Structures are given as C-alpha cells and as structure tokens.
Model the fold of this input.
Amino acid sequence: MTVTVILAAGEGSRLGSRGKALVSMDGRTLVQHAVQAAADAGTVPLLVLGHRAEQVRAVLDQTAALDDAPALDETAAPDDAPALAGAAIVVCPNWRQGLSASFRAGIQGAHDRGAERVAVVLVDQPGIGAEALRTVLDAHRSGRIARGAVRGRPTHPVVLDIRAALAAAAMAQGDEGARAYLQAHPELLDTIDLTESADDADIDTPGDLARWGAAQVPEVSD
Done:
C-alpha cells in the first residue's frame, strides 16, 4: 500500500495566518485538490493538519465529500477518523516547530496504517497533481528514492519505502522534511523530470493567490 502524506499543518503567516489548507481554488480547498490527486494516483491520502485543524475539518465537512478515494483502516482512532471519504487526518500538536514536526507525524501515521511506501506532497503546490504523482510513483524502485523536478529544480512528490521514510523523519529538523536524509544518501536518489506535467510554484503570498486565481476560505464558526 502506498500512502500519500499531504503536509498541510502550517500557519501561512504571509497569507494572514489563516492556514494554507483554507485556500480555495476553482471552488475547492487546496486540501481537497491534494486529496483528489492522491486518490486519482491510486494511493491512500493522509492529511497532516495543525494550525486551525478544527476549522479545516469544519470547512471540509461543508464541502462535497470525495466518493472515489480508497478507504483507510476503519479501526483508526477518533482523532484520525476520515474527514473526507478515503482520507484520514493526523493532527500534529507541535506543528509550530516547523515542517519537520508535521513530516514526522505524517510518516508515523502512514506507518501505523501499514504503508509499504509513502509519497510526500505539500498542500500549497496545486500544480503537482495526479499525473505528476503517478509519474514519480511509476519511476520509483524499491530501495531507492524518487523525487520530482521541474526545469531542473527539485520539488515534490518525494517517494520512499517506509523504512527510508522513517529514517528520514528521524533526521528531520526545523522547517525541513526529508532534505537531510536526501543529502545524506545522494546515491539512492533518482530525479524524475516533471517539467511537462507539473507546475512547482507554491502559494505563499497574496500575489500567489492572484496568480492561481485562489482565495482564502471565510472563517467558519463553531
């Protein structure tokens, strides 16, 4: 089983600290776009939330559920129960420590659900879709690491066997995910060109919102 870990725990300080997961594009949140891409690529989506996790849940509950995504283990704990059909949520309590904390939470969540390998993506890269994810997954070989690149720039997804993913999580620090592990094991890395199938630009600022035709989702009251 392959689990796609969708890192969506950040505050999005340059977007007014309302969270990147709560950005809407083409009538759907970035979380929904990422979950759909993961499902369409034939993987199990796992969301890692942190900042305003309950508001993200509320927004997801107000939008259309994804009907075709594969289901996760029904024995998941209540806090990790699926909020969208086929997706599970892991809440990272120490998300303020940076990307490394949500990366560790996501990898551990994938391991706990029996994943044999993981693909790691960022919620704020809507141009990394199902086609790009499938391309890197298809290129991945057991015992190695596959990573996408656009015009020579390393980007996501990053695909690892679960054992390597756990080792990468143990090495992660600060606002980085698998980078330290990748730098320590360049001999294992296969770079997959996604220039024709992906846009690696992320959504960090109001200018990025305008470029993508995106907007922040209104706050949801309890």
In short: The helical segments are 30-40, 53-62, 99-112, 130-139, 162-171, 179-184, 206-212. The chain has seven helices and ten strands. Residues 64-83 have pLDDT under 50 and may be disordered.
